[in-house]
Amino acid sequence: MAGGGRAEPRTGRLPADLTNFVGRGQEVGQVKHLLAGARLVTLTGAGGTGKTRLALRVAGDLGRAYADGAWLVDLARVSEQGVVEYAVAESLGAQAPVVDYLRERELLLVLDNCEHVLDRRCPCRLPTPRFRQP
Ligand SMILES: Nc1ncnc2c1ncn2[C@@H]1O[C@H](COP(=O)(O)OP(=O)(O)OP(=O)(O)O)[C@@H](O)[C@H]1O
Ligand SMILES: [Mg+2]
Predict the structure, then answer these.
(1) How far apart are CA 48 and CA 64, in angstroms?
(2) What domain range includes position 39?
(3) pTM
């Protein structure tokens, strides 16, 4: 990890809950368990079933375990695979190339609404998998 002289916030950025979080104790535990053993965990399900809320709950709980916190990157308005990198950089307040920024940090990224920018040749992979590398 780099030292503490950086100007940008280190605690991450997640939206505040506007309503109480209800239930999902089992799912929260499952996602945390999966994250302990994998660098990428994908939540899938029908629209409106609580994927975003679950991800944010887990991220809120685990953010402090990451030196640079937990961050939400909402890709809903990103229309092309080629600009995912810039959307991530903007959300983090980072300068592109964002891969260099991430390489020096330890953070939990919630990439929400990313299905339309997935690489269809491999549904589990974003078009820029290097984001997930150290
Ligand atoms: N565990 C929960 N406790 C309280 N509210 C919840 C919970 N899960 C989901 N909700 C609420 O239900 C609505 C839909 O949830 P959410 O946006 O997380 O679904 P989603 O699966 O991400 O939907 P989409 O596929 O459209 O992105 C939201 O208003 C959210 O706050
Ligand atoms: Mg959602």
Answers:
(1) 28
(2) 25-112
(3) 0.84
For residue 46, how far is its CA from the centre of ligand 2 (angstroms)?
Answer: 9
CA 67 to chain centre: 14
Note the pLDDT of residue 5: 45
CB atoms within 10 A of CB 54: 18
Mutate to test the pocket of ligand 1, among 53, 74, 111 (most ligand atoms within 8 A of CB): 53
Confirm if 106 and 1 have CB atoms less than 8 A apart: yes
Is 62 within the bounds of a domain? Answer: yes
Residue 9 lies in a domain: no
Per-residue pLDDT tens over the stretch 6-27 = 445 556 789 988 999 999 999 9
DSSP label at residue 15 = P
